Amino acid sequence: MKQASIGIIGGGLTGLTLAYLLQQQGIAATIIEARDRIGGRIHTVTPKGDTPIEMGATWLGKQHTHLLQLLKDLEIGIFEQQLGSTAFYEPMSINPPQLVQLPPNSEPSYRIQGGSSRLIQTLADQLKEEQIQLSQVVQSIIQKDTQIAINTNKTTYTFDYVISTLPPFLLAQKIAIQPALPATCTAIMNNTHTWMGNSIKIGFRFKEPFWRTRESSGTIFSNVGPIPEFYEHANYEDNLFALKGFFNGAYAPATKAERLRLALIQLRKYYGQKVDEYTSYEELVWANEPYTFESYGNPILPHQHNGHSVYRQAYLKERFYIAGAETGFASPGYMNGAVESAYFVFGALNASW
């Protein structure tokens, strides 16, 4: 096996999975990450001794075979997301919320035991500490004959191969690439939807799961909002409790205090004053994350150009690859797509050697 030097831009699920696969072959890739943490759009907030709450990627299904295989290889278990037999449903503002029966769920969603970030940390544990370079904001990617230079806010790295795992739109908007990528590729990148970019995740921790009664539910669907979906979010051991879900992305410009106020107003409609007994509140506005999201100049539909064929090609003398959740063929935009993308690039690198 050729001992090529490999640089991976982005320390999220794709980047860490690819580095792990390369490590299995004795190749120590270098991950260059802009944040001061790894994980990217996987971010489990876990205060010591309290309920883990997912602020990013959360659920997977039995159809997510690439992710499931990776979890199996790393000996990480999953558990079923509990929806219960009923849900609060709010179809319109002129009617009160209804407690409705949920149909049997033949395709349940699952969560990762210990939180999604457990997968991230387990992958990172397979690498040497120096392989992960944090707080390195990539500014340019420049081809130099048979090598590629990555210039960051702090230093310059030179590699035989470089793989970007950033959202393609962010890559196109924020990083100068010389020579320029083909116009067809750039056009697709500039119109590729960024998964999670418009999402706001919120969560409330509680000492007890007061919603587990016949007259209540931990599942909420509302057309009124500003919370459209909410779910029970207990840990795998079922001894730490929370409710967690989505907040309308239009409220990104609001303050955290205002979102909290509006969330409590809505939740009181279902739970009364019990909801005010929350022990802590978490939120993450992904539109405010500069290393994930850049505002679109033109309207882009959800999952637009995710999994496009331009992301299956190598560029810059076949030494530069565009990977990441949006580029995967299998479930693009989800954790499974991120893992599948890593496996694809891993295979392409092996074929090129």
In DSSP terms (H or I, runs of 4 or more residues), the helix count works out at 7
Count up the domains: 2
Order of adjacent strands in the largest pleated sheet: 7-6-16-17-18-15-19
Which structural class best describes the helix and strand composition? alpha/beta
Indicate the low-confidence ranges by residue numbers.
Answer: none
What portion of residues is helical? 10-25%
The biggest beta sheet is recorded as: 7 strands, mixed
- CATH topology label of the largest domain: FAD/NAD(P)-binding domain
β-strand percent reads 15-25%
The level 1 CATH classification of the largest domain is Alpha Beta
Structure description:
By secondary structure, the protein is of the alpha/beta class. The protein has two domains: 1-46 and 116-196 and 291-353, FAD/NAD(P)-binding domain, CATH 3.50.50; 78-112 and 198-288, Polyamine Oxidase, Chain A, domain 2. Helices cover 22% and strands 24% of the residues. The protein has helices spanning 13-24, 65-73, 116-125, 168-174, 183-189, 256-271, 335-352; strands spanning 6-9, 30-32, 44-45, 53-54, 78-80, 86-90, 98-101, 110-112, 132-133, 138-144, 147-152, 156-159, 161-164, 176-178, 200-206, 220-222, 229-232, 241-247, 280-285, 314-315, 320-322. The strands form five sheets. The protein has a seven-stranded mixed beta sheet, covered by helices on one side. It has a six-stranded mixed beta sheet with strand order 9-2-1-13-21-20, covered by helices on one side. A four-stranded mixed beta sheet has the order 12-11-10-14, covered by helices on one side. A hairpin with a 6-residue loop joins β16 and β17 (229-232). The longest helix has 18 residues, at 335-352. The radius of gyration is 21 Å and the shape is elongated. The termini are close together. The model has no long low-confidence stretch (mean pLDDT 96).
